[in-house]
């Protein structure tokens, strides 16, 4: 092994790091290399280095963030459990994000990932734990997508599923625009809940986003009714450009 550094050429690492590593190995085994035992120790150290370095390189270079390239829509579900489903163009749920402990508890007991969104609605509405929130709760569903065809599909699908299992006073759904989606994301709040919070804040900025985020949808709509008695959550709204963002009220 006249040129040991050449053995490291296939390893993706900085040349200085390779040289320092080899120097450290050579210095640590210099006195032992004169004996057979020292040569064996040197060989074992090199072998460990060759094995571990590529593994560490692959581990550190592996992607750590979720690939959202196939996401076509986001659908949020809020009663008190607050969660969002990312959906692809086949309406398959690719990931689920819980926003509170109640949602984490629901998600941990149900197998919703990789299900179609309509199947997930069935599973949720049939779950005994999830149904307990309907005793005195309102389900708010927010839909965000730039795909107009998918938007219409979700309109029809969600409305059909909900009206077959709930009364119109038990749920409300609306489409979320780009501005509200971005603001909700930056505020770590589900898009559906953020839309209602935004409406409350447009009437009264004495409330805080954090304080309102901890309230159930029933509580939020009760506050909103103090400023707009006609704003009654009922059934689903068709997609329009006006849904989702509201200006300041005076």
Describe the protein:
Keywords: Membrane, Transmembrane, Transmembrane helix. InterPro entries: RsgI_M. This is Anti-sigma factor RsgI-like middle domain-containing protein. Pfam families: RsgI_M. This protein is about 45% helix and about 15% strand. It has about 250 residues and is an alpha/beta fold. The chain has two domains: about 10-60; about 75-235. It has a six-stranded mixed sheet with strand order 3-2-1-4-5-6, sandwiched between helices. The longest helix has 26 residues, at about 35-60. It starts with 14 loop residues before the first helix and ends in a 14-residue tail after the last strand. The model is unreliable at about 55-65 and about 240-250 (pLDDT under 50).
Quick summary of this structure?
With 250 residues, this protein is of the alpha/beta class. Helices cover 46% and strands 13% of the residues.
Question: Which helices and strands appear, and what pairs or packs with what?
Answer:
Blueprint: H1 15-29, H2 36-61, E1 73-78, E2 82-87, E3 93-98, H3 101-109, H4 117-126, H5 128-131, E4 139-145, H6 148-163, E5 171-175, H7 178-186, H8 191-203, H9 209-213, H10 217-225, E6 235-236
Parallel strand pairs: 4-5, 5-6
Antiparallel strand pairs: 1-2, 1-4, 2-3
Helix pairs in contact: 4-6, 7-8, 8-10
Question: How many E strands?
Answer: 6
Strands of the biggest beta sheet: in what spatial order?
A: 3-2-1-4-5-6
| Structural class by SSE content | alpha/beta
What is the global morphology? globular
Total helix count?
A: 10
Summary keywords:
250 residues; alpha/beta; 2 domains; six-stranded mixed sheet; 10 helices
């Amino acid at each position: 092994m006249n040129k040991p550094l050449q053995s490291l050429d296939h390893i993706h690492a900085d040349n200085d790091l390779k040289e320092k590593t080899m120097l450290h190995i050579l210095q640590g085994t210099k006195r032992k290399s004169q004996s057979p035992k020292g040569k064996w120790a040197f060989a074992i150290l090199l072998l460990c280095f060759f094995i571990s370095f590529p593994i560490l390189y692959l581990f550190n270079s592996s992607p750590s963030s979720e690939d959202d390239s196939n996401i076509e829509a986001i659908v949020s579900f809020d009663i008190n459990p607050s969660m969002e489903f990312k959906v692809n163009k086949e309406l398959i749920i690719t990931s689920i994000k819980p926003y509170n402990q109640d949602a984490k508890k629901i998600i941990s007991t149900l197998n919703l990932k990789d299900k179609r969104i309509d199947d997930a609605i069935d599973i949720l509405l049939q779950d005994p734990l999830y149904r307990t929130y309907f005793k005195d709760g309102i389900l708010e569903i927010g839909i965000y997508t730039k795909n107009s065809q998918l938007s219409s599909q979700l309109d029809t699908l969600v409305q059909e599923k909900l009206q077959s299992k709930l009364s119109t006073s038990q749920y409300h759904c609306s489409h979320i625009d780009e501005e509200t989606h971005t603001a909700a994301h930056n505020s770590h709040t589900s898009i559906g809940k953020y839309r209602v919070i935004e409406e409350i804040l447009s009437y009264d900025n004495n409330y805080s986003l954090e304080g309102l985020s901890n309230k159930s949808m029933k509580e939020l709509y009760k506050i909103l009714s103090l400023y707009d008695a006609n704003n009654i959550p009922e059934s689903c709204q068709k997609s329009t450009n006006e849904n989702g963002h509201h200006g300041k009220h005076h």
